[in-house]
Amino acid sequence: MADPKPLRLLAQDAEDLGVLSAALQDAVAKIGDIRWDAQARTLTIACNRFRWEAEGKKGERVRSALQFGDVAGVQARNLRRDAKGAIVSLMSIGFEPAEEAPAGLVVLTFSGGGDMRVSVDCLDVALADVSDPWTTPRTPGHAD
Predict the structure, then answer these.
(1) DSSP labels for 31-46?
(2) Bridge partners of 137?
């Protein structure tokens, strides 16, 4: 079987966001690669995504971009914004709907207890692989 093509995914509801969350589990990023543009109302995260969908004995990573549109605000907890070179590992992305649909809160949970809460007017999320994959000797693992 041929290697999977680069991912290009969109999320417009909580179910779609669950697919993106699974694809991004264990993605790593530098704090400096997380950018909120309040004027454009976007939050963009450049990361190295582990390619869970790739077959083979060796793991692969690929450079990916995740962008949230219609962002009203962003809050971070236990993430040092001044430590631009600090590495964070994404564990999951969830959605909490607001009383007035389609607005809500996207919660990005990172290992080590950090999280981001992204207030959105609606779910408008895009994930795209932007490089060729490379082999990594480290496959992410989690304690049971």
Answers:
(1) GGGEEEETTTTEEEEE
(2) none
Within a domain: residue 140? Answer: no
Structural domain contains residue 108: yes
Q: Which domain holds residue 47?
A: 8-130
Closest by CA position to 33, among listed 76, 71, 64: 64
Q: Is the pTM of this model over 0.85?
A: yes
What is the Cα–Cα distance from 49 to 40, expressed in whole angstroms?
Answer: 25
Give yes or no for a contact between 17 and 120, defined as CB atoms under 8 angstroms apart. no
Number of domains within the chain = 1
For each successive 10 residues of the chain (144 residues), what is the average pLDDT? 79 97 97 97 98 82 98 95 93 96 96 96 98 89 64
143 assigned to some structural domain: no
Kindly state the helix (H) or strand (E) to which residue 106 belongs, with its residue range: strand 104-110
The residue type at 31 = I
Report the alpha-carbon distance of residue 110 to residue 136 in Å, rounded.
Answer: 21
Q: Does some domain include residue 64?
A: yes
